[in-house]
C-alpha cells in the first residue's frame, strides 16, 4: 500500500506527520488508551510520539501495511489513528488496529475510518482483514461490528501485557467479498440505556458492579439457585462485569441490574440468555436482595424485559427454570404469565457431584400479563 490520502464520510485518512506529535502525546496519556494499549510508555512523552512517527510508522508501511492519521476534514486536526499490521502477503491478509483521541469519541469517526481503510485495502489486493478486540473494550467491538467485521470467535492468550500476563481477545474478520454493511445485532441496545416502570429501573451491568454482585452471591438463598450453587470468586465476578456489554453486543446474553428508582440502590439482577438463536428461544433468570423483597421487583423486571424482548428481537419464546422447592420464584413466573411445561429430573449440577431437579416454565408473547 502507498501512503496516499483517503477521503471518507466525515473523516480524512492522511499520512501521519511530525506536527501530529502533540496530539499523539495527549491522546496516549488518556487512561482508556493506556488500558487497552498496555505497552505504551507511561507517561507518554513527545519524544515517544516522534520515535513512533519516525521509526514505527515507516516500518509498518515498508512491511506492506499502513498507518494513517484519522483527521478532521475541516481542520486537519488528528482525531486518532488507524492502520494495518501483521501483513501476510501470501495469504493476502492483515490486522486492522485503531484508536480515537478523547476529543473525537462518540462521533463515529473510528468506524468511518476503519470502513474506509478496509475498502481501500481490498481494492489494493487484500482478501481478508482481521480486528482483534479486548472483550472488556465494548467500544472497540462496536467499531468492528459497525464496520462490517463478522465475529469469528476467541483467540486465547493472544495479547501479552507488560507483566507477561496473557489475555483472550475476540476475533472479527471481513473478506473482500463481504458486503461491508454493519453486522446485524441479535440483541439491540435498550432505549436510553434502560427500561423502567416508574418505580423499578433496569440498566446494563458495568465493570463497577463487582461489589454488588459479590453481595448478591453471598446471599444464601440466592447462592442456592446459582448454577452450580458455589460462590464465584472475585476474579470471576470482575470478568463477568467487564465483559457483560461485549456479550450483549455479540448476541449471547443481556445482564441487567434492577434499581430501586426511589433510592437509586441496586436491588437485584435479571439476565436473558440467548441459548437457542436458531429456534428463537431464550432463557431468563433473576434474583433480588432481601431488603427489596415484597415489592414485586422480580415479576416487574421479568415483565419489562419480556415486553421489550418480544417487541425488539427475533426471540419468540422465553423459558425459565425453578427449583421445585422455590415456591416464591414459581409465583413470580405465574404472575408474569409463564406457564409450567415440564419437570426435568436431575437437570442441574448441585454440590458434591449431586444433581438438582428443575421445573420448566415458558412464556409466549400472547401469555404476557401487564398487571401493575
Automatic annotation (TrEMBL):
InterPro entries this protein is in?
A: Acyl_CoA_acyltransferase, GNAT_dom, Ribosomal_N-acetyltransferase
A Pfam family found in this protein is: Acetyltransf_3
Tell me where in this chain the N-acetyltransferase domain is found: 11-178, 200-366
Coiled-coil regions listed in the entry: none
Q: What is the species of this protein? A: Asanoa siamensis
Kindly provide the name given to this protein in its UniProt entry.
N-acetyltransferase domain-containing protein
Lineage, opening ranks: Bacteria, Bacillati, Actinomycetota, Actinomycetes, Micromonosporales
Amino acid at each position: 500500500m502507498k501512503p496516499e490520502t483517503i477521503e471518507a464520510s466525515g473523516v480524512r485518512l492522511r499520512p501521519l506527520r511530525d506536527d501530529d506529535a502533540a496530539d499523539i502525546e495527549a491522546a496516549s496519556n488518556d487512561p482508556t488508551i493506556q488500558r487497552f494499549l498496555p505497552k505504551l510508555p507511561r507517561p507518554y512523552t513527545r519524544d515517544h510520539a516522534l520515535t513512533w512517527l519516525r521509526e514505527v510508522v515507516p516500518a509498518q508501511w515498508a512491511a506492506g501495511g499502513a498507518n494513517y492519521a484519522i483527521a478532521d476534514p475541516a481542520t486537519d486536526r488528528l482525531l486518532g489513528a488507524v492502520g494495518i499490521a501483521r501483513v501476510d502477503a501470501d495469504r493476502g491478509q492483515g490486522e486492522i488496529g485503531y484508536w480515537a483521541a478523547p476529543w473525537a469519541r462518540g462521533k463515529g469517526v473510528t468506524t468511518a475510518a476503519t470502513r474506509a481503510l478496509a475498502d481501500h485495502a481490498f481494492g489494493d489486493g487484500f482478501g481478508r482483514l482481521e480486528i482483534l478486540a479486548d472483550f472488556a473494550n465494548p467500544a472497540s467491538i462496536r467499531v468492528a461490528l459497525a464496520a462490517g467485521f463478522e465475529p469469528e470467535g476467541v483467540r486465547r492468550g493472544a495479547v501479552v501485557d507488560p507483566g507477561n500476563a496473557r489475555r483472550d481477545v475476540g476475533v472479527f474478520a471481513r473478506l473482500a467479498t463481504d458486503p461491508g454493511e454493519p453486522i446485524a445485532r441479535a440483541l439491540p441496545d435498550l432505549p436510553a440505556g434502560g427500561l423502567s416502570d416508574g418505580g423499578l429501573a433496569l440498566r446494563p451491568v458495568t465493570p463497577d458492579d463487582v461489589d454488588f454482585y459479590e453481595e448478591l452471591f453471598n446471599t444464601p438463598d440466592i447462592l442456592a439457585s446459582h448454577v452450580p450453587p458455589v460462590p464465584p470468586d472475585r476474579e470471576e465476578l470482575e470478568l463477568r462485569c467487564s465483559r457483560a456489554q461485549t456479550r450483549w453486543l455479540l448476541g449471547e446474553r443481556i445482564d441487567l441490574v434492577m434499581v430501586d428508582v426511589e433510592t437509586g440502590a441496586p436491588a437485584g439482577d435479571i439476565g436473558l440468555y440467548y441459548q437457542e438463536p436458531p429456534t428463537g428461544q431464550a432463557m431468563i433468570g433473576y434474583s433480588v436482595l432481601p431488603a427489596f423483597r415484597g415489592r414485586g421487583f422480580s415479576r416487574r423486571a421479568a415483565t419489562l424485559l419480556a415486553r421489550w424482548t418480544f417487541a425488539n428481537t427475533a426471540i419468540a419464546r422465553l423459558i425459565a427454570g425453578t427449583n421445585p422447592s422455590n415456591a416464591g420464584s414459581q409465583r413470580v413466573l405465574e404472575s408474569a404469565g409463564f406457564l409450567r411445561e415440564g419437570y426435568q429430573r436431575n437437570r442441574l449440577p448441585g454440590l458434591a457431584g449431586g444433581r438438582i431437579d428443575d421445573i420448566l416454565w415458558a412464556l409466549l408473547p400472547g401469555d404476557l400479563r401487564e398487571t401493575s
